[in-house]
Write a structure and sequence with these properties.
- The complex is a heterodimer of chains A (277) and B (465).
- Chain A is an all-alpha fold and 277 residues long.
- Chain A has 15 helices and two strands.
- In chain A, strands 1-2 form a two-stranded antiparallel ribbon.
- In chain A, a hairpin with a 2-residue loop joins β1 and β2.
- Chain A starts with a helix and ends in a 5-residue tail after the last helix.
- Chain B contains 18 helices and 13 strands.
- Chain B is globular.
- Chain B starts with 18 loop residues before the first helix and ends with a helix.
- In chain B, strands 1, 2, 3, 6, 11, 12 and 13 form a seven-stranded mixed β-sheet that branches. Chain B has a four-stranded mixed β-sheet with strand order 8-9-7-10, sandwiched between helices. Chain B has a two-stranded antiparallel ribbon with strand order 4-5.
- Helices cover 44% and strands 12% of the residues of chain B.
- Chain B is α/β, with parallel strands linked by helices.
- The chains are: A mainly alpha (277), B alpha/beta (465).
- At the A-B interface, α3, α4, α6, α7 and α12 of A face α1, β2, α3, α10 and α11 of B.
Chain lengths: 277, 465
């Protein structure tokens, strides 16, 4: 019976896994192909011709573009935005969950709605803001702007999560002489690790994927992030450097995938934390 | 690009790293990185404004990442440096993917800040009020090398306001690419649209369909507007009145529906800017309309059918034989530009002496001022250093550029209404509706006319057409 359940589970999951993994397989195969091999439609995507597999696309990335710098810039912006998001979203999420009663619920939904305003509308007015602050062509422009969409979502997510933590635990800490801040730091936040991890991973992923602001506010190659640098350098008019493009997207995908897997259980707990409240 | 920074020896890291440690160290590392970034020369602190600065003035230029990477290297590292030294100006060139140019321009205008010179790849007439007039620049260049080409003038001049809103330094011919080996089996050449229609079913049966896009992208726009012209149909009249409802348009739409059904695949409705190139280079297509990037890419990769790729002018049709430029390099100077004087000087110089640009782009960029490159036919006959170049392939470009290339909006000017019609992809949508069978030719024509009417009305009210 148990064995049959297991088979059934794998049979259900396998098609989804194949469909979801196939793009990564395609990316990997394309990244390892020699340029001419890409255009041999008899071989794509399963077989290699002579000259493949090759590391030429990876070498091209690191030797003939500023890819290393883009990776570094992306990591920098990602970390900074994660820190800013946590600093703002943790107290805001807690306050809305605990301290503001019914109004907090509406306010939380209102804050979440701002997340839904698309960057394709916001980039024009924000361009003016960035120019006024003299931040054009600097990574600070992205560090300033990205929290505008990471913070609302994170507040909403943490709000739901904080509601799952029994207030009695905090009350006990307060009775024992802890301050509100002490109760937060010693009781609430340690219990909220899955939610906080979710925010960290989600925020970082959003930053890595973001394109509109990155391409709008940054011009110089050495200040670009991956999402802006890759299409600029590897798409030249109507000629796409497919091998290098796939290599460039595969490289940041691997650590992100590992990160997701490392904290998968907590990540799921973070997302579903507020679901049953 | 060698990285000389110290590496962390991961073999010395404690093996018993817990998840908590990992997070703690990552957070600490992040803070150090961000904090360090504020003091660094690049990264968070941005690009230093006066790095290696030796000149009095600064000029900032933004343009597309050219299809020929070597052209960008020559332009950035040789041409611009020499020009900067000669004019005591620090020149900084930024590149962006061509699809991102419109959003980049919109953001610079919204911010009222950005580059001194912005190069578009289609005539940006809609920005006329945002840019300075360049009549004096055009006049200076004309005094030195002769008249601007017809396609250049009609893409950058507004006869209503008598203003050159942009400066065309180049345009790119848009020939037909076809596979001679495949077409010889059919016994025809794609010199006329009728030949293409006749050959299409057999080519498709051989597994090599015709590839003319009908989607919201540049190649589709260019090919289909050119097709309209070959059937004597136009978007507007010389005095900027909508003329899309015509017998010529109906015939072109019916022709395309027939061609699609007989000799194309549904891929053309999802065409992107690279689809022509990719499908042709993969050996699937028997014909495509494109700039010479297809032929050059085949040479660079030394494809087995490289020598079978032929270039021809736009096919002849029932109307006048007239194609379009594929892209049009048009520089503008924003009203808010910081260094207008240097920007104008840069344009005068680039317009006056274009030989280096013509050669380093490997015949991709044709001069908008024909007198700025001497002996073009002779240069086209000579081989370049491009790998596996097929001798005799490119001389036809001279004829194509002179006789069969016109501006978008022909027989009128590339005005603001045409710019908007072009950027809203009304023409490809009209063709796609008919080819898919969603509408009859008359219905699609009327729908396109309805979409164009408020656009033309708006720009007429603004006194731009």
């Amino acid at each position: 019976m148990r064995r049959r359940d297991s088979v059934l589970t794998y049979a259900t999951v396998a098609p989804f896994a194949i469909v979801l993994a196939f793009p990564f397989y395609w990316m990997l195969m394309t990244a390892l192909r020699a340029d001419n091999d890409l255009y041999d439609i008899e071989q794509v995507p399963y077989k290699f011709n002579a000259g493949s597999p090759t590391s030429a696309n990876f070498r091209f990335l690191f030797e003939q573009t500023d890819y290393r710098q883009w990776l570094q810039n992306t990591a920098l912006v990602g970390l900074a935005v994660v820190v800013i998001t946590l600093v703002l979203a943790l107290p805001a999420g807690y306050a809305l969950a605990r301290l503001s009663g019914r109004a907090g619920q509406s306010l939380g939904v209102g804050i979440f709605l701002t997340y839904l305003v698309p960057p394709t509308l916001l980039f024009l007015p924000l361009s003016r803001v960035i120019a006024e602050l003299n931040l054009s062509d600097r990574l600070w422009s992205l560090i300033l702007v990205y929290p505008s969409f990471t913070v609302p979502f994170s507040i909403w997510l943490l709000m739901g999560f904080f509601k799952t933590i029994p207030p009695e635990l905090e009350d006990a800490a307060l009775v024992d002489g802890a301050s509100r801040l002490g109760a937060l730091a010693r009781v609430v936040f340690p219990l909220s690790i899955p939610g906080i991890l979710t925010v960290v991973i989600f925020t970082f992923s959003l930053v890595v994927n973001e394109f509109v602001y990155a391409i709008t506010f940054i011009s110089s190659s050495e200040v670009k992030t991956i999402s802006a640098g890759v299409p600029t350098e590897l798409i030249r008019g109507d000629v796409f450097y497919w091998g290098a493009l796939m290599a460039a997207t595969l490289i940041p995908a691997i650590p992100l995938a590992l990160l997701y897997n490392l904290f998968l259980n907590r990540f799921i707990a973070g997302f579903t934390g507020g679901a049953f409240r | 690009m060698k990285d000389r920074r110290e590496r962390v020896d991961i073999s010395k890291v404690d093996d018993e790293l817990t998840r908590r440690d990992l997070l703690r160290r990552a957070a600490l590392g992040g803070i150090v990185l961000v904090y360090g970034g504020t003091g660094a020369k690049t990264a968070v602190a941005g690009v230093p404004k006066f790095r290696h600065r030796q000149h009095a003035g600064t000029l900032r230029i933004i343009q597309w990442s050219h299809f020929v990477p070597a052209y960008d290297r020559w332009f950035d590292d040789v041409y611009v440096k020499r020009w900067g030294d000669a004019n005591d100006t620090e020149v900084r060139v930024d590149h962006v993917n061509l699809a991102e140019l419109p959003s980049r321009a919109a953001s610079e205008v919204a911010a009222q800040s950005g580059h001194d010179l912005f190069q578009f790849l289609s005539p940006p007439a809609a920005y006329e009020d945002r840019v300075i007039a360049l009549n004096d620049v055009v006049q200076q260049v004309e005094r030195k090398v002769g008249k601007i080409s017809r396609v250049g003038r009609r893409s950058t001049y507004n006869p209503r306001t008598r203003k050159y809103f942009g400066f065309a330094d180049n345009y790119v011919p848009d020939p037909v690419h076809y596979r001679a080996d495949l077409w010889s089996e059919v016994g025809l050449r794609p010199t006329t649209w009728e030949n293409i229609r006749r050959a299409a079913p057999r080519l498709k049966a051989m597994g090599n369909p015709i590839g003319i896009g009908m989607s919201n992208e540049l190649d589709s726009n260019m090919a289909l507007i050119a097709l309209l012209q070959c059937f004597g149909a136009y978007i507007q009249s010389p005095d900027a009145r909508i003329t899309i409802r015509s017998k010529g348009t109906r015939d072109a739409l019916n022709f395309m529906r027939d061609l699609y059904r007989r000799g194309m695949t549904s891929e053309v409705f999802a065409w992107t800017a690279s689809s022509n190139n990719d499908a042709f280079l993969a050996g699937r297509l028997s014909l495509a309309l494109n700039a010479i990037s297809i032929a050059r890419s085949a040479e660079q990769r030394n494809l087995r059918f490289n020598r079978d790729i032929r270039i021809l002018p736009i096919p002849d049709g029932p109307g006048p034989r007239m194609g379009l430029e594929h892209v049009m390099g048009v520089y503008v100077i924003w009203k808010f530009a910081q260094n207008k004087r240097a920007a104008k000087k840069f344009l005068v110089d680039i317009g006056t002496q274009y030989t280096g640009h013509f050669l380093n782009s490997y015949f991709y960029n044709f001069p908008a001022f024909p007198g700025s490159v001497k002996r073009i036919p002779a240069r086209l006959r000579r081989n370049t250093s491009y790998p596996n170049e097929v001798p005799g392939r490119y001389p036809i470009l001279d004829q194509i550029s002179k006789k069969w290339t016109t501006n978008v909006g022909h027989p009128g000017y590339s005005n603001a209404a045409i710019d908007e019609v072009f950027n809203k992809f009304i023409i490809p949508q009209m063709f796609a509706r008919v080819a898919r069978g969603d509408m009859s030719a008359d219905e699609a024509m009327r729908a396109a006319h309805r979409e164009m009417t408020p656009i033309f009305r708006k720009w007429r009210a603004r006194r731009k057409i």
